[in-house]
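Internal tracking record. Fields below are filled automatically when a chain is submitted to the structure queue. Please do not edit lines marked as system-generated. If the sequence contains nonstandard residues, flag them in the REMARKS field before resubmitting.
Queue: standard
Priority: normal
Entity type: single polypeptide chain
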Amino acid sequence: MTDPGTAGPATGPGTATGRWKERGVMPRVFVWVSATHAFAGFVRILFSVGQNARK
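SYSTEM-GENERATED OUTPUT FOLLOWS
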């Protein structure tokens, strides 16, 4: 028989696991936004180089 207190992972806004997940959101958002801006900058450089290329 299992103990009701250890039946499963506690996930919710008031639990330690819930707070850990909430803290993990900001670094992921930062990485996604940074990667998107880096990719957009790279594409912009490609267009700039292509525009100035000899034709």
